[in-house]
């Protein structure tokens, strides 16, 4: 299988620029996916360097393993990145030179006919990144109350018609179980219609369900501080996010670690630690070039932020 054809790594040149990999260094790729970024990091760190790679998708990891473990110093783990502290502890690694986080879904996941991430492909309504997890998108659509569904669509999808869509789902499931991507896409279409012919009306609902099924924001929230605590002085972290909810978390956590106030309350009420442990390398998110967006439209919403440990 040609992994390069299954997922094109996003903002590869910028990732390498901001990670500023040291030859012989130790690096962590928290979201190995198909291994595109990992492959470039391995090239930069040379044969003396080592890479620790994590992904919660075992299928992607198997493909990455074939691509990357050419006798080189790489250890791959089927793990949620929130367990990175435990992984490093088990490996007796106390400090690393760089950490990469490339959030969201891979093209492999989106395009896989059985995984249920895309409204464009008729498949079971699944959306689990980790297929050993029990909860699927169909479970949420079946179990959540009308209000809970509307909240998920609004909070994680910023979907303006969240309540009407939730109501239609509850009406429909009273007579037939909603178990496929096509069924859900048609329900959303029947409520929301096509406002913009470039964006399918179910885009936001699918994004929201995916975030909820995989607890994407929950995993991210406490993780960045934990990860940065493993960086050596001068070590760098690079995070790429694909929607504003993720980017907001990355920005807030980086600012907090950069010693800034993130609550914006008056000084006497502020309880932000204001203890600087990193230097912000990107005041504003770095965006892909026009050329990259043209070549790989999936990169268009990418935002890269980076910090360096003091
Ligand atoms: C955009 S892809 C990464 C692509 C990769 N950088 C490459 O070059 O091929 C995102 C990957 O992150 C993984 N992922 C998302 N959340 C995760 C988590 N909490 N823990 C581990 N892996 C996660 C997904 O399974 C997916 O494979």
How would you summarize the topology of this molecule?
Blueprint: H1 3-6, H2 12-19, E1 26-29, H3 36-45, E2 50-55, H4 58-68, E3 74-78, H5 84-90, E4 96-102, H6 107-111, H7 137-143, H8 146-157, H9 162-173, H10 181-192, H11 203-213, H12 216-221, H13 223-228, E5 231-241, H14 244-257, E6 278-280, H15 290-295, E7 303-309
Parallel strand pairs: 1-2, 1-4, 2-3, 4-5
Antiparallel strand pairs: 5-7, 6-7
The chain binds S-adenosylmethionine.
Residues 7, 9, 31, 33-37, 54-57, 60, 80-82, 102, 104, 106, 129, 219 line the site of S-adenosylmethionine (SAM).
- Overall residue-averaged pLDDT value: 94
- Biggest β-sheet: count, sense, barrel? 7 strands, mixed
Order of helices and strands: HHEHEHEHEHHHHHHHHEHEHE
Q: What's the total count of β strands? A: 7
Main sheet strand line-up: 3-2-1-4-5-7-6
CATH superfamily of the largest domain: Vaccinia Virus protein VP39
The total tally of domains equals 2
- Strand coverage percent: 5-15%
Give the radius of gyration: 20 Å
Uncertain runs are none
Q: Which CATH architecture of the largest domain?
A: 3-Layer(aba) Sandwich
Percent helix, as a range, is 40-55%
């Amino acid at each position: 299988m040609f992994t390069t054809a299954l997922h094109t790594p996003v903002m590869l040149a910028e990732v390498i620029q901001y990670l500023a990999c040291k030859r012989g260094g130790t690096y962590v790729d928290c979201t190995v996916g198909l291994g595109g970024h990992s492959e470039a990091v391995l090239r930069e760190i040379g044969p003396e360097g080592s890479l620790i790679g994590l992904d919660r998708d075992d299928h992607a990891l198997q493909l990455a393993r074939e691509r990357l473990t050419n006798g080189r110093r790489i250890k791959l783990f089927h793990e949620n990145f929130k367990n990175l502290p435990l992984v490093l502890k088990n490996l007796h690694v106390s400090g690393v030179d760089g950490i990469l986080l490339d959030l969201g879904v891979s093209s492999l996941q989106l395009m896989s006919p059985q995984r249920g991430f895309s409204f464009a492909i008729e498949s079971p309504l699944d959306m689990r990144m980790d297929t050993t997890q029990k909860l699927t998108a169909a479970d949420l659509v079946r179990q959540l109350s009308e209000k809970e569904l509307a909240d998920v669509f609004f909070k994680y999808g910023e979907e303006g018609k969240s309540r009407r869509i939730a109501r239609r789902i509850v009406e429909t499931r009273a007579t037939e179980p909603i178990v496929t991507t096509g069924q859900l896409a048609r329900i959303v279409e029947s409520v929301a219609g096509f406002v913009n012919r470039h964006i399918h009306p179910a885009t936001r609902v699918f994004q929201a369900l995916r975030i909820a099924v995989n607890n994407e924001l929950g995993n991210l929230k406490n993780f960045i501080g934990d990860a940065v605590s493993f960086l050596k002085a001068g070590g760098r972290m690079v995070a790429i996010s694909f929607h504003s909810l993720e980017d907001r978390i990355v920005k807030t956590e980086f600012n907090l670690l950069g010693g800034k106030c993130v609550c914006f309350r008056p000084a006497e009420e502020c309880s932000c630690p204001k203890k600087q442990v990193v230097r912000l390398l990107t005041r504003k998110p770095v965006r892909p070039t026009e050329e990259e967006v043209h070549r790989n439209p999936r990169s268009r919403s990418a935002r890269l932020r980076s910090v360096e440990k003091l």
